[in-house]
Amino acid sequence: MTSGEGPTVTELFREVRARFIEADLDDPAAEARILVGGLLDLSSTELVTRGSDIVSPDRVEMARAAIARRLNHEPVHRILGEREFYGLQLTLSPATLEPRPDTEILVDTVLPHARRLALEFENIHILDIGTGTGAICLALLHECPQATGIGSDISSEALETARANAARNGLAARFDIVQGSWFEAIHGLFHVIVSNPPYIESSVISTLAPEVKNFDPPAALDGGLDGLDAYRAIAKDAARFLHRNGIVGVEIGYNQRKTVTSVFEGAGFFLIEAVRDYGHNDRALVFKHHD
To answer: Start and end of every Methyltransferase small domain (predicted)?
Structure first.
């Protein structure tokens, strides 16, 4: 590297990786790849094939500021301001949960039911309660062209993020937003009701990794004393908004299959499917209602 020039892409990647190794992050190379690739707008392949390109001073400065943020436990995707979910690029905001790969399991699980209902009814309507970035609803709309959807949330900032994500992914015409808690502002019937609600017990929040407790919005995490408040609220009213043959799909915590199932059974639902995540923990449940 000649004097006066900035580092190359490879050198910058190595610098970031070294700092992350030093900080004892779980997967320093992968995080460095995501961060440097995101900041320089390069794919994993391009990080290698364009490794000898010189990085401009402003990008180097951004990368070094990003290192400091990551070492302060801010997750890489929050620093970049976006994350891929189910093939869609989604913008994140402080008011939204960062969509995780485990939540893609809920989309995978609900999608065949949505497609079956679309064959039966032609057009189907999806409600995503606590939509956040819009991730679940937008992924389902993207995969199911016969569907329209509503994302509801208590946070206006989250809803603006979801609306922007719908526009960003060409789904604005089939996606609408509603502000309110649970079903209070909802009208009409839905073929699919989905939610990744807050499900962590209040007392556990303080023990979570700083990446989660300091950067994900508390309202998207705290499920009350026993972690089941959200499921009670959804189960209590969902049947009134559910179309004939419709389904309710929810994400759950790793140890909540029995308790969440009993909450829904108490409200007249029955479990039709339970799916585990990549770590073999229960993650998604699908219910139908006894008509």
So the answer is: 122-203
Q: Is 153 annotated as a binding residue?
A: yes
- Average pLDDT of the segment spanning 4-24: 89
| 132 among annotated binding-site residues | yes
pLDDT at 174: 97
259 is in an annotated binding site: no
Minimal CA–CA distance to 151: which of 171, 175, 174? 175
- Model pTM? 0.89
What's the start-to-end Cα distance of the chain, in Å? 72
The superfamily CATH assigns to domain 85-289 is Vaccinia Virus protein VP39 (3.40.50.150)
> 229-238 and 257-266 helices cross at what angle (nearest 10)?
30
> Known binder of ligand: residue 176?
no
Domain boundaries, the chain: 9-72, 85-289
- Please name the residue that has the structure tokens 């004892």: 24
Residue 198, annotated as binding a ligand: yes
Distance CA 69, CA 126 (A): 37
